[in-house]
Every structure is written in structure tokens, then in C-alpha cells.
Amino acid sequence: MKYIVANFKMNGSKNFVDDYFSKFQGSTKHQVIICPPFPYLERAQQKISQSPLKQGALQIFMGGQNCALERVGARTGEVSATMLLDMGCQYVILGHSERRLHQGEKSPLIQDKAHEAINCGLIPIICVGETSDQRENGSIQDVILSQLEESSPKEGKFMVAYEPVWAIGTGKSATAEDIAYVHNLIRSQPRFETTTLLYGGSVTAKNITEILNLKNVDGVLVGGACLDIVQMNSLIEG
Q1: Under 8 Å CB-to-CB from 145, ≥6 apart: which residues?
Q2: CA torsion 218→118→223→55, rounded to 10°?
Q3: pLDDT per residue rounded down to tens, the chain (238 residues)
């Protein structure tokens, strides 16, 4: 079994969610995790709980795209881990490069959020990855290991998603050799010997089989391609 994690990012509408979940087809040997925007979590959960999805061979889990460090309080605009849990989520994406870039999130904050998520009963998916400049200057190893150490929780169950920043939303995908190098690097670290490792970065129906067949790749984190339900059906069939 592999993990197929779909990150809708800031996309969707009520009609989109209704149409999307009405068109899931077939069954899969993989575990599918859908991460819609916060406003559509409840609607997505309702659709997932309805037949034929609930009664069929296709089991879908829910995840949030982020959570707050605090559990309650005066934090306008934030969503807590307990709220995600209340909405039916089992997972939460933390430290995505877009949040590191646009919201200025640093690794120590991501680690604190991961601890909070775990304490509330969620499984964090910790994102790490290098920029094109870091790739070109040969600092991939230093960047990845630093992010891993500073972002990952010290205890509890979590996943790690390697997302080369230069491959996210660009149409460019890391080569099999690129992916294998980083995943093998992560796996070689004693603390991550048994951690579930995902790859994300322009994953499509065309390259998913090759990626999932790589050693130390336990699944994928899909962005743009997951918004097309026809392609999503192809992704989960792999």
C-alpha cells in the first residue's frame, strides 16, 4: 500500500466538491487522503461518508492544509488542530513551501505545530525541500537535513513529504535519480528509518508509477493534478 495525498490548495467551491466526489471511480490498493480548503472540509466529509464511497472499496481519509499552534483563543483567522479533528480530519499538512515562503513560517514553528497536531490526535505531514538556488549551489543535503531536524516532531507518528520547491506548480518534476537521492538520504538518518516518506512536485498520472516504484518512496503528495478528477482516478489506480 502507498499513500496518495491530494492537496487542493486554495481551489474549489461547493459545486466543485459535490461534482468531484460524485465522480470517484473504482477501488484502489492505496490509502487516499484528501486535503481541501478549510471552508469545504465539512462538505467533503459529508460526501465521503455517503455511499458509494463509504460502502465501496475506495476508502478516503481527510486532512487539513495547516493548523494553528494554539488550541483556542484570540487568533483571528486561524484554525486549530482540534477543529480539524472535529471536522473529521486524521492528517494535517505542515510546513508546505508555499507557507514557508508566503507566510514566513520557519522550521521551529512547524515543529511546534507538529507537536500540537500529534497531541490532538492528528498525523502531521511535514514538508521539506530545496529551492533552485540551493540545488544549484550544491547545498541540497544540508538544507534537507536541517529542515528535517528542525521541523519534525521529537516523538509521535508523522510523515515527511519531500517537495523540491523548484518542482512545485512548475510542470517540472525531479528525475528518478533526484528523488531516490533525497529519499535515501532521509532514510539513512536513524530517526527516520521507519518514517513514511512521500514525494511531491508536479506528480501526474504519467509519472506516478515510476515514482511509486522507487525505493524508499511510500507515497506522493499531489497538487495541481488532483484537481482533475479524471486524472485523480488514474493516480489512485497506480
Answers
A1: 185, 189
A2: 80
A3: 999 999 999 999 999 999 999 998 867 889 999 999 999 999 999 998 885 666 566 789 999 999 999 999 999 999 999 999 999 999 999 999 999 999 999 999 999 999 999 999 999 999 999 998 999 899 999 999 999 999 999 999 999 999 999 887 777 778 999 999 999 999 999 999 999 999 998 899 999 999 999 999 999 999 999 999 999 999 998 6
**Domains, the chain:** 3-237 (3.20.20.70)
Contact of 89 with 122, CB cutoff 8 Å: yes
Sign of CA dihedral 219, 100, 44, 224: negative
Residue in 113, 114, 110 with CA at minimum distance from that of residue 129: 110
Q: Using the CB atoms, write b or e for 75-93: b if 16+ within 10 Å.
A: eeeebbbbbbbebbbebbb
Rounded CA-CA distance 143/140 in Å is 5
Cell numbers that stand for 75 in this block: 487568533
Contact assessment for residue 132 and residue 166, using Cβ atoms and an 8 Å cutoff: yes
Catalytic positions are 96, 163
Q: Is 125 exposed, middle or buried (0-12, 13-18, 19+ CB in 10 A)?
A: buried
How far, CA to CA in Å, does 32 sit from each of 6, 35, 197, 233?
A: 8, 10, 15, 11
Cα 144–Cα 109–Cα 200 angle in degrees, nearest 5: 40
Write the single-letter amino acid at 189.
Answer: Q
